[in-house]
Amino acid sequence: MAHSIERLLSWESAPRAERMEEEGAAGEGGCERRVERGAYLWTSGEKGPTWRVTAGVVALFQGDRGLPPEERFVMLAYGGDLVGVEGQLLGHYAFDAVALTPAVVSRWGGSPSAASWYLRQTRRAHEVARLRVGNARERIERFLELLSRAAPAAPWPRLRDMALVTGLQMETVSRVLAERRKVARQR
After folding, report:
1. Angle, CA 130 vertex, CA 51 and CA 63 arms, to 5°
2. Mean pLDDT (the chain, rounded)
3. Which of 17, 101, 132, 175 suits a disulfide with 56, CB 3.0-4.6 Å?
């Protein structure tokens, strides 16, 4: 059973039963994993390989559980992004990784070109920063556009997860989505 990201982040440790289930399929590094929306891929401090997001959207959060969830959000990864690279540099993961939508990750066996990886991460960081500025309608529209590119067939995240990523209240997200549906019906 998947939980909201906010609920997962408030737990002292991630429930192991909610973790990725290894499929054993041959991805780039020989291992593909599928994870349900709202489930942890790993928590900060764990050791593990670098992963490539092949489908869906993964959210990264600071491991400091003393901070409220909205202050822990770091970034989103999708569409070929590498996650867990810090595990190779530091010897452990620096962030908690949670599936924002159903996701598939493949063990990544290569070493990333520093320049291309850095440019991709910089673009992602800018894209995610834009999700937390502007009025509520603009934030939600940018987030939905990102989701349509990153995980076109996936169900939308839960309202509370959308609120967490955009820095809005859950009620505000609900209101903006209702207004959006109303305008779409009038067209």
Report:
1. 45
2. 83
3. 101
Annotated domain spans of the chain: 5-186
Instruction: Name the token pair of 72.
Output: 């822990």
Looking up tokens 């709202």 gives 38
Residue 182 CA to residue 187 CA, distance in Å, equals 9
What's the pLDDT tens digit per position in 139-165?
999 999 999 999 999 999 999 999 999
Q: Give CA–CA dist 26/23, Å, rounded.
A: 9
For residues 27 and 78, the answer to whether their CB atoms sit within 8 Å is no
Is the pTM for the entire model greater than 0.85? no
Please say if the pLDDT value at position 104 is more than 60.
yes
Neighbouring residues of 13: CB distance < 8 A, sequence distance ≥ 6: 43
| Superfamily of structural domain 5-186 | Jelly Rolls (2.60.120.10)
